[in-house]
Amino acid sequence: MKTLNLYTDGACSGNQNNSNIGGWGCILEYGSSTKELYGGCIDTTNNRMELTAVIEGFKALTKDNLTIRVFTDSAYVANCFRENWHVSWLKNGWKTSGKKEVLNRDLWETLIELTQKHSTRFFRVKGHVNLESKTANLDKLYSQFTKWNGSSFSFDDFKYITEMNILADKLANKGIESNRPTESIEV
Fold this sequence. Notes:
This protein is an alpha/beta fold. 40% of the residues lie in helices and 23% in strands. The chain is built from 6 helices and 5 strands, in the order βββαβαααβαα.
């Protein structure tokens, strides 16, 4: 059975400000077929856009019971599933271990429901890596990647996954740009 890879990223220009613009991007890859999606909205946060990228990727699927690998540079998203935060949240009535309300509950509920339709694993990727930079220590980055995700990924896998994350980041930035207000000129 083939595995579907989902590469995601979210971004927010002016994050934590009262008025900002967010974008999300994702790439679905199944065998030799790929599909790129992106979008955005105003008055949001980076974490909401990271979650939205994954949700929109899942919403684009037309079948259930797939084997899916999600690659994200968001520790917030990856660790929720890798460390089973969501299980504790559900048990604690949507409260964190510190007894605070879980932020972005609406998006988490949607994402949890979507992931339960599939066999899903989350993997962490280092964001904003410039593979072409002469100063990028790719061996060190690969070591960090395997520390996060296990040694089943080759160095070439790591480079490819990183390239796909870079593309997801570019799509997220397209989502931001598509939501920037255009200035009108009075004549």
